[in-house]
Amino acid sequence: MNSAKSIIYVNYSPYENSGKILDYILENFENVFLFSIGFYNLRNKRNYNILSIYKDRKLQKTYSLFQLPISSKFVFLLIPIKSVITFLEIIFYSTWLKVKLKRIDIYFTVNAFTAWIGSILKAIGVIEKTIFWVWDYYPPIHENKIVMLMRYIYWQFDKISSHSDRVAFVNRRLLDLRKDIGIFQKDAQYPIVPIGTDKLPYTHVDKKSNKKVLFGFIGVLKKSQGVEIVFDNADELLKEFGDIGYEIVGSGPDEDYFRERAKMSDIHVKFYGYLEGESFNDVLRKCAIGIATYIPDVSNVSHYGDPGKIKRYLSLGIPVIATNILEFSNEIEKSGAGVIIDYYNPNAFVNAVKKIMGKHSEYSKNAYALSKKYYYKKIYPRMFTFT
Known about the structure:
It contains 14 helices and 13 strands. By secondary structure, it is an alpha/beta fold. It folds into two domains: 6-193, 3-Layer(aba) Sandwich (Rossmann fold); 207-373, Rossmann fold (3-Layer(aba) Sandwich). It has a seven-stranded mixed β-sheet, sandwiched between helices. Helix 10 (308-315) packs across helix 13. The mean pLDDT is 89.
């Protein structure tokens, strides 16, 4: 780690501690100023826009920032208004913090728009260095023209922010994309820093001895996440295993849709909504299989991501069923930590469940072993070290 003492960290809720990144920052910086920005309306979460001030890992004070409640139907339409508000609040409070603290060493974010705000703060002398940890790429392709326009505009910020003082990528696919379109030279070297895993006790219980097969999902409830694949295969699953449960942790724009699907299904489904802290671990560790079956649509941003949900499943020794749209899918399959399926193959999901449940202990141990490779304390230091 370097000698930096203070950091501004900006992220969208509920991703502030994905891969234990907030924990790492709190462990390594004396003064931490976290801007949590709301994008989706999440049930069970009252405040979306918050500035949290930490000193020596302890929360000192929180400030509620301006909150614009928006129906899920109008999220993308009103992005410009929300973005202007976000811009003004980060600029104002960061400048105020600079006056109080005299020096702010690092501005760190995972979003292209907020990374651009960081470059402005550096230009006016508020912060010393900027770090952009690139989590995603939003293909400017979508059936909704408004969404397509917003993605195009976001991509312009992404190209600018790709020249922050420090740029790291969660996978090589994101870096190669920028090389292919000429943002970087072909021989440019940038660190690949995946989403990290936690080091949790391994408490595997052989799920084959349980009569109920329990699936788990954690994340934002959007149709693109493939949450409904369990409902789509309910009849076959019930015929094969007799009793099926589904634990769903999280909230999001399509939550009502999934709740309706659950009502029409004979599967026992429990929605937990957004859970504070890490209480979701207690829910997930009961589950036999983690769901990460992203729909392979060309407009799905998950093609370029490194989903934190998968790293969470692995940290708990939970085998994963995922689709082959992630770069990380190859590693899941090679390590025997789960099964990768073709989303549109009608038999693939049930066959994958059979395969995992037939050797659940083995798959579970492989998942936990893979998680050790990505322990967050091992992989994050290179992102914050300036040479």
